[in-house]
UniProtKB/TrEMBL annotation:
Pfam families in UniProt: Amidohydro_2
One GO MF term attached to the UniProt entry: metal ion binding
One record GO biological process: secondary metabolic process
InterPro entries on file: ACMSD (IPR032465), Amidohydro-rel (IPR006680), Metal_Hydrolase (IPR032466)
Pathways per UniProt: Secondary metabolite metabolism; quinolate metabolism
Protein name stated in the entry: 2-amino-3-carboxymuconate-6-semialdehyde decarboxylase
Similarity comment: family membership: Belongs to the metallo-dependent hydrolases superfamily. ACMSD family.
Length: 329
């Protein structure tokens, strides 16, 4: 069974919250034709999309053509809206979570869902996570790599991670609002350099800030193969060793990194093998970033091309690991 862990979706009838709440940072959907639209932010085109991003039938057609049995649906990160007042952000989160849950309900053998929560307010985030997991039947929560510039080890987020561990909620960490944005405006470097660097910062913060030490049963997957995190992990170990006065954790970072999961969107079989060697094949989940331009086509192709792993390991990475991560049979 092939499970595409990393795919994004948005409601076709997304309401115009920019008008409702009088703010230009809200993402809106502006139709350009019967099969396409622009995601608009502050009156500018943020991203051009096709009906693949909202139409489950179109997605299923693509899945059948590309040999994918199930997609895990998650919101588009621009909709996190951590910058907004919590009550307003909760409105958008609930709209998306309801839409994802309804899509899964209509096609339970084709889709599983991840929700989103307003992380700028812990109480609101926990309340919506509770609803996602215990009322809507979603399988986990997608979160951003930072919350208004605060790294994921910020004290304000501790209670959220505590409840995530208590309820056994899998977390998918996706980059957004990347660091160094003023230096990565050309060449689409935000996507090719900024996002991998942002994900590395999130992974390092979770470890060095003691989040994974405090909550060892947390299930966390870093997107895009963890970005640059796997490659700089030895350097994080070196820093931990030479600066003992800065330590908040008893063991070196690589000890805690063993608990992390990574999607397989790394574009090269050599990088798949690197993830397998460093973290184990059971921590790698096939993910394509469907339906966006940088996605892997067909999903799982890089794993298929990794000739140095066994067929059993490939099967695990192509689907079994994702189901286990999401606590699904």
């Amino acid at each position: 069974m092939r499970v595409d862990f990393h795919t994004h979706i948005i409601p076709e009838d997304l309401p115009n919250l920019a008008e409702k709440f009088q703010g230009d940072r809200w993402p809106t959907l502006q139709r350009t034709c019967t099969c396409g639209a622009n995601i608009m932010v502050a009156g500018k085109v943020f991203r051009e999309v096709t009906d693949q991003v909202w139409d489950p039938q179109k997605r299923i057609h693509d899945m059948e053509r590309e040999n994918v049995d199930m997609q895990v649906l998650s919101p588009i990160p621009v909709t996190f809206s951590y910058w907004a007042p919590p009550k307003e952000a909760e409105v958008l989160a609930r709209i998306q979570n309801d839409f994802i849950a309804e899509t899964v309900k209509q096609y339970p053998n084709r889709f599983a869902g991840l929700g989103t929560v307003p992380l700028q307010d812990t109480e609101t985030a926990i309340r919506e996570m509770d609803r996602c997991m215990h009322e809507l039947g979603l399988r986990g929560i997608e979160i951003g790599t930072n919350v208004n510039g605060k790294n994921l080890d910020d004290p304000s987020l501790i209670e959220f991670f505590e409840m995530s561990e208590k309820w056994g909620v899998p977390l998918f960490v996706h980059p957004w609002e990347t660091l160094g944005r003023d230096r990565i405006t050309r060449h689409n470097l935000m996507y090719t350099v900024g996002m991998p660097s942002e994900t590395a910062l999130a992974g390092a913060s979770l470890i060095l800030g003691g989040v994974l030490d405090k909550f060892p049963k947390l299930k966390i997957c870093l997107s895009h193969g963890g970005g640059s995190f796997p490659f700089i992990l030895p350097r994080l170990d070196k820093g931990w060793k030479v600066w003992p006065h800065l330590r908040l954790i008893e063991q070196p970072p690589s000890y805690y990194a063993k608990s992390l999961y990574f999607d397989a969107l790394v574009n090269d079989p050599t990088n798949i093998q690197y993830l397998v060697d460093r973290f184990g094949h059971d921590k790698v989940l096939m993910g394509s970033d469907y339906p966006f331009l940088l996605r892997e086509v067909p999903p799982g192709d890089t794993i298929d091309q990794t000739l140095t792993v066994t067929e059993e390991q490939k099967r695990a990475m192509l689907g079994e690991n994702a189901l286990r991560f999401l606590n699904m049979k």
